[in-house]
Each structure stands twice: as structure tokens, then as C-alpha cells.
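User: Second chain of the day. Same drill as before.
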Amino acid sequence: MIYLDNAATAYPKAPGVARSMYDYVEKVGATINRSSYASAQEAGLVTLTLRERLCRLFGHPDPTRAVITPGATAGLNMVIKGLLRPGDHCIVSSMEHNAVMRPLMQLEKEGVSFDRAPCDKEGRLELEKLPGLIRENTKLVVMAHASNVSGTVQDAEAVGKICAEHGIPFALDAAQSAGHMDVDFGRFRLSALAVPGHKGLLGPQGIGALLLDAQFAEKLTPLIAGGTGSASDMEELPGWMPDRFESGTMNLPGIYGLETALRYIEERGIADLEAHERRLTRRFLDGLRSIKNVRLFGPYDLSARTGVISIGFIRRDNADAAWQLERDFGVLTRCGLHCAPSAHKTLESWPEGSVRFSIGYANTEADIDGALEAIEATSS
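Assistant: Same format as last time:
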């Protein structure tokens, strides 16, 4: 098997993730913020350690504003629906995932408007056009850092600078960049950063984080209200962080798993992980150049992309080709529109979609060579 679907979820997970989750379920079992016995205190300490690791990884100053979420989609909904009200305006790019677009489409029916900042045919934001989209009622800019279709990376630092100059909050969807490259909350001048735990962070599904700026957090209305284990004498939500955004029982198995994954990332280093994936991405892209009857969607320029690589088969139906890649060669990919119809329209891969190969930390040169041989055999 050659697993090249890491943009959907990383496989295998970081060493120790499964063991730490098993140990929590079998040996700890307690929840946090509810009791003071030893196992509950241990769970609370692991949760705090996770928040601290998230802050170190993403250049965020305050662990109390590292909110634990079910994933990036939940975090983005917390930002978009927690902030925007009828009459407000939002700016996105034309490369967004449905985790951004579907909440906005819901809010559009309630009087929220939005504009798509144009991107070129390789998915790169036409940065000079962004300021012209800003209105008096623009309350948010939210964008994907890296495309889940083409791997195209946007200049988040430049976008953050424009937003800061106009006093507009900037929220970044780092679903495809977190764990793959440097993502810096302060340098990007972010108001919010949404990350999933199960992709580049190498943890389990069902866990993620939303890192917030202090002033921006005060503007958000929590989507979910309920018990937090704190201020139990009140029927109002507590106003302090992170409790205000963490109602209900926390996903402790996920917290233990993600904390272990981030420990691995800290020990190995983002720079090493990025260098490994870049080497393999270059090998893949170089190999694609010599294969006929396939088309790359996105840039060949390694500095402008991640290891998410989408191609179209010119003489074959993409779905049929993806099926053959698995059946005959054991190459696992993702075929279709990848929950990002706007991105595919921008890349001119609509409506056929593409076959996506996404490289992860555990892939090898042999995986890349095997995938290229399979593509060549399948494309004819």
C-alpha cells in the first residue's frame, strides 16, 4: 500500500498517539474541571500541556486562548457564525474549502454578504486586488493558508498586514499548513487560527484548536452553551477563557492523542518535517513532467506550494483512474471535488475535479517512485 491521502487525514499517526489514547481510556478515564482527585488532575495537566504546545508551535502568547475544538471546521464556524451579523460583510478567497463557504452561504440568507478575492489559475491570491474589496461594513477576512486541492500557499503575512492597516480581523484556516510549515500567529497578525488535529499535526480525528486574539475573542458569541465545570453557581456562561468556548465534556482521548503528537512534532521540529515533505514533493513534481496525458493543477514552484498535488487524467475519467491506481498498484488517493468547488472553478478543473496525491511525514522516495510508475501506467 502507498498511502497518499494525507490531506484527508494523516496516516500513520505520530508514534505513541494510539498508546496514549488507550492509556487514557484504560488507566485514567476522568474528565477535567469537574473533580479534584488525582486522575482528574492528571487529565487537566495534560490538557494544559496541550494548550502550551499549541502556543509554542504557532507563536501564540496565551494558553488560555488556545480553545480545544472538535476540529478546524468547528473552529471556523465558531469564528464566522460567532462574529458576523446581518448587514456585515466578509472577504474570502476564491480557493476556499466548504468549511468556510457553507457557513457563509447560511449567513448570506440572513443578510451577511461576502466577496471572493480572485486567485490566478494556479490558485495564488491576486493580493493587489484585496484592498479594493474592503467596505465600511467589512468585519472579517477569512482564508485558507494552503489549498486542499492544489497545495497553493497564500501569503498570509501580506494579507495580515493589509487587514491590520484597515483594522479588520483576519482568520486563517490552517487545515493544510499546520504541521507542514511555519505558521506564526503573531507574524501573520492573526485574530483567529483554526487547526485540525488529525492532518499535519498527526493526531486523531475529532480534535482541533482555535487560537484567538484577546480582543477578537471578546467579540465572538459562543455557538454552544452548557456546563463547563466552572462557575457552576451561575446559569450564564462564564466570561473568561477558555471556558467561554468549551461547554460540555471535553474529548479527553483526543486531547491525550494530540498532546502526544505535538510532543513528537516538537522533538522532530517543523523545519525537518517540512524539508522531508519538500524533497518528496520535488521528486513527485519532477516525475510528473515526463508523464504524458496528465495535467497538474497548481504551481510547479516548490516555494509556492505544499505536498498536496492534484492532477487530471486527459484520456481517462478521473474516478476510473483513481480506482485503477488502488486496484492495480495499491496507491491510495482522493478523487473528486474535495469539498472545494470554488477552488476547482479557479483552477479550471471544474466540473471533472482531480485526483489528489498528498504527501505526509511517513512517505518515502519509494512511495513517490511507485506512485509515479502507477500514474504513467494508468494515464495511457
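The domain at 2-11+269-379 is CATH 3.90.1150.10 (Aspartate Aminotransferase, domain 1).

User: Great, on to the next one.
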